[in-house]
Design goal:
2 copies of one chain form a homodimer.
Chain A (H helix, E strand, L loop, with lengths): L5 H19 L5 H7 L6 H13 L3 E2 L8 E2 L1 H11 L7 H13 L4 H16 L2 E5 L8 E8 L4 E8 L4 E7 L6 H14 L8 H11 L2 H14 L2 H4 L5 E4 L1 H4 L8 H13 L1 H11 L5 E4 L11 E10 L2 E11 L4 H22 L1
Antiparallel strand pairs in A: 1-2, 3-7, 3-10, 4-5, 5-6, 8-9, 9-10
Helix pairs in contact in A: 1-3, 1-4, 2-3, 5-6, 5-14, 6-14, 7-9, 8-9
The structure holds a DNA duplex.
Chain lengths: ~350, ~350
Amino acid sequence: MKDIDIDQRRKKVLCAIVDSYVETAMPVGSRTISQRFRRSVSPATVRNVMADLEEMQLIMHPHTSAGRMPTDRGYRFYVDSLLEPERLTKEEESVINKLLTRECRDFDSLMRASSRAISMITNVAGIVLTPRLKRSIFKHIEFISMDSSRVLTVLITNSGLVKNSVMDLEDEISRSELFRISEFLNHELEGISLGDIKDYLTRRLLEQCDSFYNFLKKAMLVISSPSLLRMDDRVYYEGTTSLMAYPEFKDIAKARLFLRFLEEGKDVLDLFNEDMEKEGIKVHIGKENSCKEIQECSIITSNYKIQHRTIGAVGAIGPTRMEYGKVISAVSYLSEMLGKVLEDIG
Amino acid sequence: MKDIDIDQRRKKVLCAIVDSYVETAMPVGSRTISQRFRRSVSPATVRNVMADLEEMQLIMHPHTSAGRMPTDRGYRFYVDSLLEPERLTKEEESVINKLLTRECRDFDSLMRASSRAISMITNVAGIVLTPRLKRSIFKHIEFISMDSSRVLTVLITNSGLVKNSVMDLEDEISRSELFRISEFLNHELEGISLGDIKDYLTRRLLEQCDSFYNFLKKAMLVISSPSLLRMDDRVYYEGTTSLMAYPEFKDIAKARLFLRFLEEGKDVLDLFNEDMEKEGIKVHIGKENSCKEIQECSIITSNYKIQHRTIGAVGAIGPTRMEYGKVISAVSYLSEMLGKVLEDIG
DNA sequence: AATAGCACTCTAAGTATTAGAGTGCTAATG
DNA sequence: CATTAGCACTCTAATACTTAGAGTGCTATT
């Protein structure tokens, strides 16, 4: 190893430190690294390299006589520059495939199966956001009379999401009118994204006059029913129990704060929504996260798409000390598969 | 206190031990009890009573020089004979009411709000089972064409549960036939419980002959679509994070087993299903539970009803050391309210 | 530049000590 | 006779003390 570029060696050492620390959760000593390289370098040399890496703030000391562990910056460098892309094994892929196809009948199950799939393969918590209603595309609407004053609206989107909501009509609109409205909407809104519907109808409204005007207005009233297009974006997560086995969560108070953070859901939702604007795999490491509850955690996210349109996001969360390679591949693969499954059932 | 029936005193002491232990989680000494009775009895006397209670296996010693704590039998006696029924405060009731009415638009939210309501008020985990499909009553069915081969079935029950499921038709049944089938079913099945539908149709089938026979057979095929009446009974639970604050869960390994137990869900479902056959509030204390993961926990369950028919169950789970009075009232009140809310939206 | 050697540091695990909370028993008391 | 005071005894949990060993950083050597 003598004639290797010094920077190359630094990289290798950092890599070894990360790998070893991820595996054992113990600060890594120079002896260990030396052995990892089959003694082709002495511990003393490794110590010198380590001193350099520490100066670069890529690794740190918990105390004088302890080994080194990666800093957030260290992980960042590892993820950006050292990690070569890997694929899940055939077995792992088939676990995901089976789970998704088995549970795809019902939307709720599919979401839960997806988050469970990630957590099973990566051993960290899996997170799945339901398809954003606003990004989904209108497919069909149908009104079903429940009793004298109430109507069940069934809205079908291209993501296979069927949204039921009950409307109180109070006799403003007759049944026959409602039937005409549904015919009109089904014809008119084909292929329009739910987020654009109101704008679209408003524009139509301005173009029209007289007799059709009132009809359109009623149609608009119906489609604007608060519960119908209301965001009920939900965060599914699973696998927190596996997380509790990590030494990082041995302090139950910390574990509790973390769980509360997930249970609360708001911040998770915001984070994922923000990430959804960007393409590809996103990685947030430790202190890079603005929420203090998860500053010792890392989050990996990815979008899933239907017909090349991003409609939702999946991800994983666990301690900063995680197997980034595997988690990234799992999140990536799942996002792809979930898109496909949704496309099939949509 | 001298001239009080000796049994009466034992009861009071047991009661005091339970109350104090529930509050502090520390074994209760004779001094403490004596003070609780404003020194009307001396610690020595209390010690004698305690010795009796211990002989009856209602309380125990963790070790010689520690105070007493209730045994499972002790809690059982406390719950059955000592606890007088209490009501939630107006504030607590209004917390439940607000939560349920605010989240009642959508079924999933309602279930989650219910479990959260229990956990918020009792500080233990709240559990809610979705209305059993088989116990619900048929209200309306509608078929919506999705594409050439698939049909979305929308089944509405009296519990407001709207069940969507997709059917692959493969041209066995024409659209017009399907329409006639829905009209037939809507007319015929009014008021029949979903669990009885198959039997009912089979009976009808045997009565009929010739032309109508084939029609009935197709109707039956449709209603028997595996995903339609398939049990997808689900367990909602919330409030596990509050649970983690209890000293009982300071051992993270135990906490993990417990969480896994809930996450798994199967055993919870079985337990609640079994309890559903019985009326009123059911209490399972510690070792009375057959699942070893929860033998240091107690479970309180109650049914909820629509039109006097039991269709589901709610409950709470926490450490045996819980405020039984409050938890029982909360579960009881919630089950009542949930039934009402479901009746309203059904 | 790489390595061996060595003094030095710090933790974590094990051991010892001790204060005090609480008991159970016995004898005294109204 | 039920109740109580007194007292010796027990056990825990907290604190302090000790020590082995893992690992470093520096210096001298190859």
